[in-house]
Amino acid sequence: MKYLLILIVLLGLLSCAENKQPSDSNNIKNEDIAKDSKYQAGRSLYITNCATCHNLRYELTGPALQNVEQRWKDKALLYAFIKNSQAVIAKDAYAKDLYNRYNKVEMTQFTWLKNEEIDQLLHYIAIASNKKD
């Protein structure tokens, strides 16, 4: 168990290092991203709150976040899941399937996040996860 925790932390740190460079995706130039306050705020939220368990393109403790918005039937449900996953798992089949698929690891509750902050986070994910390497 101790080694699993160490592995998870190391993978999270690696994912942070991978995502530090601004992307050049969606025809947005690096200098434009540097000026994009919504992207920068979302990047900060991702690194601080998500990168330990989620990578943009590959699975860690939780699913990869690339195209996350397209996988949910409605944006309000995604926001509710981010804020309190267990409440959504209790009533939504897709959320319950995610929970089961990822070994019933409970996602941290982010009840303090405002919708505007989730918008920033999703903006960052949409751009950064589709960058060209």
Automatic annotation (TrEMBL):
Superkingdom of the source species: Bacteria
Residue ranges of domain Cytochrome c in the record: 37-129
Transmembrane domains' residue ranges: none
Record key words, sorted: Heme, Iron, Metal-binding, Signal
InterPro entries: Cyt_c-like_dom, Cyt_c-like_dom_sf
Signal peptide: 1-17
Official protein name in the record: C-type cytochrome
Native species: Parasediminibacterium paludis
